[in-house]
Amino acid sequence: MDEQILQYKDLYERLAAYGKSDYYPFHMPGHKRAALNFANPYQIDITEIEAFDSLYYAEDLLRDSQKRLQKIYNSKRSYYLINGSTGGILSAIGASIKTGDEIIIARNCHKSVYNAVKLFQLKTHYIYPQFMECGIQGKIVPEQLEDVLKEHKNIKLVVITSPTYDGIVSDIKKIADIAHRYDATLIVDEAHGAHFSLSSYFPESSVSLGADLVIHSLHKTLPSFTQTAALHVAGDRADILGLEEMMSIFQSSSPSYLLMAGIDRCIGIIERSGKQLFDKYEENLKRFYEIGKNLKHLHVLTEKDYEAYDVPAVDHGKILIRTCHPKVNGVQLYDLLLNKYHLQMEMSSAQYVLAMTSIMDTQEGFDRLFWALLEIDRDLELTSDLLEVCDDYRNKSQLGKFLERVYEKREKVMEISDTEHYNIEETLLQSSVGKISAEYIYLYPPGVPMIVPGETISDHLIEVIGKCRNLGLHLQGLRDRQCQKILTVASI
């Protein structure tokens, strides 16, 4: 990051300097810092006063606005969320189960799902997404879900993530049919798919494919403020009163009118200009993918790359750029785009970077990304000294095998909430093999756990953690920020 920005020690001043800079945001939020003619925030920051309704007892203004949201997504009910999709996920799960129930969750679910598991002391059964090239987590296989439901007759709820952080979509219709056949409710965390169904260029939303409850992070891919989201009732299985109670529990009792106004403004933009904006967005994406074919040592992933995995659909708005050259890995490519070209990607992985786009991205932004990639590609062709060689990962097949082990199945000894019933001790990571973890370890983003409390720590996991650190990937979850120690169950 530029020193002219880093010189500011006050958060507001640093944000203001960043906002005025030439750094281009290929990351959320979806408004992309566009000038949307929003009023001075201090002038319109209010609480529940006369004429402005109340979020949890909406009777007119907010009720009508939420009905507009409902109409856009063709849901049975839609609710504003001002605590992000996290608040929606916690509320949806809380309203769909009783404490101690059995549920199925996709292993690549967001950490808020795991927090709900802990809060409601749920008994978990995991289904694992396909592992794809480059370390990408793929679709949920419906047949795997049915196998678990056949074996465990008391499951009340299924929670999956679709699309994934990387834009991979599962067969929601088939998954919903299976879940309902076994009398289970289906919640889809569609946080990264708020733009689905708003244009035929993108996949169909889970709202219309049989899911019972769907959560959208409006701020991720639409012009809305960070922390704004929506919860949609799409089926007949939802406990509406329970759901509304949970939303009042897991969100602030003083919901921000700035955030709600941001949602309302977002709805208005879609209503008035949605088709025009999505048509231009589609044009920019198609053009980018076409000219991206000219790259030799970098590769822009397309649907063709996923054909072998029978993926139902992908989100074209998630641009994944893979490095095919031994001299640069995903983290190095991310740093190069940021520091030399002032292009801020959403995230980096071992072999690729993710550029997150929206209807608010400009043609100039797409052009800047392409010309930067083209220049990097040419440098990789011409020089052997562009970047330090990552010797351990010259062999891409070796890296692929390593990535597959990052999220391999762990031995489950106890439920997540059960670890609280035992004494917890701090153990050196290198000496923790065979012990039961009492905390999470995950790569963030996207926040998918490598291990959860109650699972056995293996020597493979220790090796994986070391290699992730060597690659410069961001590990979170451990209280020890140096990743030298881990909390474990002292004894059983």
Automatic annotation (TrEMBL):
Domain of life, per lineage: Bacteria
SUPFAM superfamilies: PLP-dependent transferases
InterPro entries documented for this protein: Orn/Lys/Arg_deCO2ase_major_dom, Orn_Lys_Arg_decarboxylase-I, Prn/Lys/Arg_de-COase_C, PyrdxlP-dep_Trfase, PyrdxlP-dep_Trfase_major
A GO molecular-function descriptor: carboxy-lyase activity
Domain spans labelled Orn/Lys/Arg decarboxylase C-terminal: 418-460
Keywords, ordered alphabetically: Decarboxylase, Lyase, Pyridoxal phosphate
Keyword Lyase: yes
Cross-referenced Gene3D superfamilies: Molybdopterin biosynthesis moea protein, domain 2, Type I PLP-dependent aspartate aminotransferase-like (Major domain)
Domain Orn/Lys/Arg decarboxylases family 1 pyridoxal-P attachment site: 11-291
Co-factor(s): pyridoxal 5'-phosphate
Residues in coiled coil: none
Family named by the database record: Belongs to the Orn/Lys/Arg decarboxylase class-I family.
Protein name, per record: Orn/Lys/Arg decarboxylases family 1 pyridoxal-P attachment site domain-containing protein
